[in-house]
Amino acid sequence: MTTLFDNIFDSYAYSYPHKHSYRSLAPLSLSALWKEEKKDALFLYVHLPFCEMRCGFCNLFTIANPKDDMVDVYLDALAREADTIREVVQPQHFGQMAVGGGTPTFLEIPQLEKLFGIIRKLGAQPELLPVSFEMSPKTITAEKAQFLFSQGVDRVSMGVQSFLETEQKSLGRPQKNREVFAALDLLKKQGFPTINVDLIYGAQGQTPDTWLYSIDAAIRYELDEIFIYPLYVRPLTGIAKSGNAPADNRFELYLAAKSMLLNAGYEQVSMRMFRKIKPDRPVRPLVYSCQEDGMIGLGAGARSYTRTVHYSSEYAVARHNIKSIIDQYSMKAAADFSQADYGIILPQEEQQRRFIIKSVLHNSGLDISRYRELYGSHPLTDYPQLQSLLDEGMAVTEGQLFHLTSRGIDYSDAIGPWLYSTPIRTLINNFALQ
Ligand code: SF4
């Protein structure tokens, strides 16, 4: 046990600064924001905030069963936003792309065709990039899989959460296993190079045996990637409202899954991500660096990153607030997309901290010499907490690389938030979630 952390499951630091630190900004012109930025290896993220149901654990920016022509009106706005971005940001080259949400396969084929038309017009060539596309068992069809494959999608990611219907139900995501297996079969048949499923541990009534049943099912399916997510009962979600918080056996479940996956020939890339070791898997060259390259987000709820400013639309969890933000987005004229008015400005210290957090929580680790080149100082001098991780045996240095040990990775959800600055932590704590 370590004395550094009281709580192993503090929160998931998948980005820094967290979106709860965003606030209204005096409008900033995107052409000025992006003028001095490197634009030859950008990440393109497209957000489709629509799902066929609202899962009980989910606090993502999405709406279930949108009515009437809401999706089509949204796609029209997406096209206007992309046109404005092309003009004012002038992206040179995209190095990676992801379409998420929500459930992008909620869209029908003509809508998917329109989506890819928008993406290509912006200048991305999906067949040449690592491209990830999210989906659900109920909304993916053979026709959609074939279309996505033909467009160049090389990684598909499906939220399954559990291979036991009782646990799916307790997570507030009722679905039929026959639909899940049918969806996996058609993705395999289509030949996507990487198939990922997301699983959740910590559900009500889940035991090591029932959890390992799901892990084993994913392994037997020979899935390329398996993401395991600890259940966080977040405010305003279905599980939080039910007042039915499960008993916390997450660390035990996590360690059991880790052991089973490593024994089955998976490598651990991060606390959540396990990848099948498969030397012959076709992999498109990755030129985008999450620590250094910018991100262009399209759509309501999508975030965009320059070195000095992160921005997006506003964020909400309650249905009527999400709907109102999507409606506002959909009514915007092209010119309205030329400025950022919600987000956070990152002073140099926060840029450095971001570099550290994004590097440390991944198995590729922190490149000390690159940090010195960029910021002119040593990360262990700037952030003495990193020394504590070394002292506790949670990290090691090998030459110019600082990385977490296997035990350190187990504590990622404590280490990430522990590395947040005090101003960011204060902003997050004061965020009024609606
Ligand atoms: S977990 Fe996925 S499918 Fe469920 S509501 Fe959230 S985005 Fe939609």
Automatic annotation (TrEMBL):
This is Coproporphyrinogen III oxidase family protein. InterPro entries: Coproporphyrinogen-III_oxidase, Elp3/MiaA/NifB-like_rSAM, rSAM, rSAM_sf. Residues 36-267 form the Radical SAM core domain. SMART domains: Elp3 (SM00729). It comes from the Bacteria. GO terms for biological process: porphyrin-containing compound biosynthetic process. Coiled coil: none annotated. The lineage of its organism: Bacteria, Pseudomonadati, Bacteroidota, Chitinophagia, Chitinophagales.
